[in-house]
Amino acid sequence: MTERTLAIIKPDAVGRHVAGAIMQRIEDEGFQIRAMRRIHLARREAEGFYAVHRERPFFHSLTEFMSSGPAIVLVLEAPDAIRKWRTLMGATDPAKADAGTLRKQFAESIERNATHGSDAADTAAYEIGYFFAGVELI
Ligand code: GDP
């Protein structure tokens, strides 16, 4: 089933100038980019996006990192896009990520891990709506 997911190229990857390499991989793997924008999240916007993690010990550090510089948000479309994108990203912790995954190649640490991807259909719908209006999805 064709599906959409929200992807973020996080500030660590944009800052190290590997956003282009990640986007090339997105296209090579057969995703359609339905929307894309370069953003610099305000702290409150990062806190809103990661509200589900607000009780976690790393919430403060994570939202500081996510608002530390520009990021690129994208809506990716493919058959089984949510699972497919999470497989391409690899494990949250790059030390545990499989060879050939984006996090293995580009992540610096469990926090500065290069990319984000929605984890389920309901979160994908919420996260796409957090950044994009329907008319921007083309
Ligand atoms: P994801 O779905 O693989 O992105 O992982 P989670 O939803 O569990 O966590 C969200 C984000 O929080 C991750 O992508 C990391 O940037 C960060 N994160 C997760 N676990 C840790 C941790 O143990 N320590 C720190 N500092 N950051 C973490």
Give a verbal description of the structure.
- There is one protein chain.
- With 138 residues, the chain is an alpha+beta fold.
- It has a single domain (2-40, 71-136), classed as Nucleoside diphosphate kinase-like domain (Alpha-Beta Plaits), CATH 3.30.70.141.
- The chain has seven helices and four strands, in the order βααβααβααβα.
- The chain has helices spanning 11-15, 19-28, 43-49, 59-66, 81-89, 102-106, 121-131, and strands at 2-9, 32-39, 71-79, 115-117.
- The protein has a four-stranded antiparallel beta sheet, sandwiched between helices.
- The longest helix is centred in the last third of the chain and has 11 residues, at 121-131.
- It is globular and about 35 Å long.
- It binds guanosine-5'-diphosphate.
- Residues 58, 61-62, 92, 110-111, 113, 116, 119 line the site of guanosine-5'-diphosphate.
Features:
4-stranded antiparallel beta sheet; binds guanosine-5'-diphosphate; alpha+beta; 40% helix; 138 residues; Alpha-Beta Plaits
Short structural summary:
This protein is α+β, with helices and mostly antiparallel strands and 138 residues long.
What's the architecture in CATH terms?
2-Layer Sandwich
Give the overall pLDDT as a whole number: 97
Q: Radius of gyration over alpha carbons?
A: 14 Å
Coarse shape: globular
Tally of DSSP helical segments = 7
* Distance between the amino and carboxyl termini: 18 Å
Helical coverage, percent range: 25-40%
Element string (H = helix, E = strand): EHHEHHEHHEH
Kindly identify the CATH topology: Alpha-Beta Plaits
Strand portion: 15-25%
Category from helices, strands and their pairing:
alpha+beta
How many strand units?
4
Strand order of the largest sheet: 2-3-1-4
Uncertain segments: none
Ligands, ions, cofactors:
guanosine-5'-diphosphate
- Overall number of domains: 1
Q: Profile the largest sheet.
A: 4 strands, antiparallel
